[in-house]
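User: Structure tokens for this complex, please. No commentary.
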Amino acid sequence: MNMNTLIRRWSVWVLTGVLLALPIVSQAELNIVISGGQESGVPIAVVPFATTTRTDFSSIIRADLARSGQFAPLAVEQMPSQPSSPEQVQFDQWRAGKAQYLVVGKVEQQGNTYQATFYLLNVTNGQQMAGRVISAPLSAERSIAHRIADIIFKQITGIPGAFDTKIAYVTETDGPLKKRRYTLEVADSDGANPQTVLNSAYPLMSPTWSPDGTKLAYVSFEGNRSGIWVQDLRTGQRYQLTKFPGINGAPSWSPKGNKIALTLSKYRSPNIYVVDLDTRNLTQITSDGSINTEAAWLPDNQTLIFTSDRSGSPQIFEEKVGTHSAHRLTFGVSYAAGGAVSPDGKTLAMLAGGNGGFRVAVQSLAGGGSDLRYISQGGAEERPSFAPNGTMLIYASQAGGDSVLKVSPVAGQGSQTLRFAQGKVRDPAWGPFLDNSQ
Amino acid sequence: MFRWISRMPLAVLLAIVFHLLLALAVLLSIKMHAFSPATEASKTPSEPTIQAQSVSQAAIEQQVKRLKSQDTERAQAVKSQERAAEQAKAAAEQAAAARRAEQARLQQLEAMREIKQKAAAVQDQQLKALQEAQKQAQETVDNQKKALVKIQQEAAKANTEKQAALAAAAKEKAAADAAKQAAIKAEQVRKESASKQAAEKAAADKAAAQKEKAAKAAQEKAAKAQAEKAAVAKAQQVREASLQQQLQNELKQSQSKGILDAYGAAIKAKVTAQWYKPPGWQPQWTCNVRISQASDGTVLNVKILQCGGDQLFQRSVQQAIERASPLPLPSDMSLFSPSINFTFTANSQP
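Assistant:
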């Protein structure tokens, strides 16, 4: 067998192999890499509800979703039609537009209640993701819209919505010092329906919610000395929790509701203490000569964060109750104060100071500040407070010479200012979930 | 030794596997080498040169005597060889023109390199056939003439066929190369015939006496040569047919790749345009998704295989695919992919 014959035979085999392999090659699956995309909130169309009431429920829902930073609701003018039930929806019409989800519904008055029926539809595949009937007293019509927004938020993001929640804050009227009035207010999460909880001639500060949402603890200067007060929101009854000499400040209700952490100076430098609400026992947490204040709880009900200047400039530290050993959490900025911990215990929000003034920033709690990210851009912000679902922060800021409240998404960009009739608004505290109906 | 093995069983196993792989690689490389067309092609130039020398040496002794009484025949031979030379020259010029025309397509040369190598192998065959014929031609001028003419015709025919086949199949990239080879071959033929002319002249002077005897033997050998040539030609036809087949396959494959690339790019563009990545995404988030689609591109099923990120991110990925439905189709439906794997990466920098 000479070389040529050998080659000829081999080539036949190789050729056959190639021919056999060809169909396999062409039937191979496509692999496609999609990178980047465009950053955008989820495009959603909340069509005006069919209703005989004067309240525009859909606009409340749109505002809620937009405030979250994770949705980009379509303006009513961008909607090709205004169906109020799934049967009326022509999906092809909507698919031509940007919206990925569609909310339609109606609100009817039945006696002393409103009854809302709404549907969340996936525009892309035409499927119904939620269909619910919600009723509420006539006086709570806005909460219907917030509850619908919560359900939409939960369905799409997987995270419970925090729109049907309350915020507490302090207002201060303008005028000469002796005629100023201070109020403690509770309002809807969008700032609507403000209710005055306490009206005082003395400064009020630092409200903190009980985890069941029925009480507030706060600082009052009545009697011209600071004290921590606890007030029941349903009955209006209140009592003074602490009246130690010196500073009684910065209360923080523990996640289980049985303790309050606070700052006491007792005529020395301020330190962190914990009061047991059942026994009234006082436990000192910090005991050095530096300033220690602004305590806040981790979800484990045992660990506190607080601001301390023990390392020179104010920084945030973490200490487990009973260990008497603190370690520093913030290294990213020269000034870190006003710490707040997200409900899942993973994120630390703070007031970060530096060249840009005082701005709200977040970092992962244990990250040391390497992933520090600014949330607000104003530069005159105050201590932030997390929404109970951890997706938003509320904080006081300056606008037009007045202090106002702003809400920013933790994940995204931008902020929205809540509108109030009062002049100065400060010290917001976001309340817990009101119910678990989501 | 055993302790050594038992202490590092993985390493030993790896070593064995590695050695097996090495042995396999060596075996494969030997076979690959044996089959390599490059080896064949490199042989081509050396053989005819050696043969041409032996032609002149052997022929001189035999044919010098013959030449004296062969003046007329020789004259005819010279004429026909001149004609042949002219034809070859014309063919070479045509080939050169063809090559120039094809130079614009040089970018596809990469794909055609294999074809070119195969063509070289064919040339090798043809040259061998030539050599066979030339051996016979040493015996007699007549037969040499006939053989030369026939070989030239054969070569020309083979060239034409090959050029036609290549032109039809691959917009004639290989044609330039084949023509180039043909030109070289024609040149060789011309040179050989020239040298043979000289040899013939001397041989005719010396070999007149042996003419009849030689003629008889030559006839027998010519018949034998023709039979061999026919066999070679047949083998060459088979080879050319398979070559053409392979050429078509390769062409189809490269065309398929182009269509597949365009197909993938069209889908990628449509899906990317529909991807609204929600705020809060992290650069390291990726999502592997497998979809199935109907033959009109309608997405039938989206299966999230593995996905970093939160639910909003996953939903955005699903929405991007569903909103891109129906997906673009390939220009050749035989390349349609009923299922596609997508990898979504939140980071825009790959």
